[in-house]
């Protein structure tokens, strides 16, 4: 594990570095799609910045609510600490911010959802590389599988051999990103976004069985319950909009 690297004499957190690369990669995909749709390419950068700000705020708030027993005694300190970011909170916060930006810019259209689908999947896949390299505690339960590994030098160290669940997620959502990009002109945009929700929900629901997150009264983790919501919404989008003709791109 390598939580920190030396870059030209400056200490750089590997998770933060992968986080930045994930946003740049997602931005590149969005920019390409905006150009295909004949939308201003610089608007993709604006959308990305809105997603970044909203995502960070949402990730912190979701973590705070999900860990109230731990954070409730010092809400402000927990809110502004450097630890505790959750993907689902980030996705919700980023989505709200982008929708507000889209309304302002006149891009509140189905094509925006379709364009965001492969970018979101790719950004998530790269972001999980940061979790793996830094050993930030997103690893799984102890295991005896051949590819299990320990994280003795991680940000959240463990000497147990565990499931490397960040790798599972990178592979799963990396494949999803390729599929969604391949289908961008073959599937209606809202249905394509629904397919992304299905991929994201299914991937996280399955991986949670190997992660060490606590389960609730239902026998499922908070992330799995949220995943079920994504699967339902994604399936509804596909059923409702899947038969519509896809959006043609400019030649």
SSE layout:
Blueprint: E1 4-7, E2 10-13, H1 14-36, H2 42-66, H3 68-71, H4 75-79, H5 87-105, H6 110-134, E3 149-151, E4 158-162, H7 165-182, H8 189-207, H9 222-241
Antiparallel strand pairs: 1-2, 3-4
Helix pairs in contact: 1-2, 1-6, 2-5, 6-7, 6-8, 7-8, 8-9
Keywords:
251 residues; mainly alpha; two-stranded antiparallel ribbon; 9 helices
Notes on the protein architecture:
The chain has 251 residues and is mainly alpha-helical. It has a domain at 4-39 and 107-241. The chain is built from 9 helices and 4 strands, in the order ββααααααββααα. The strands form 2 sheets. It has a two-stranded antiparallel sheet with strand order 1-2. Strand 3 and strand 4 (158-162) form a beta hairpin. Helix 2 packs antiparallel against helix 5 (87-105), helix 6 runs antiparallel to helix 7 and helix 7 runs antiparallel to helix 8 (189-207). It is globular. The chain starts with a strand and ends in a 10-residue tail after the last helix. The model is unreliable at 75-82 (pLDDT under 50).
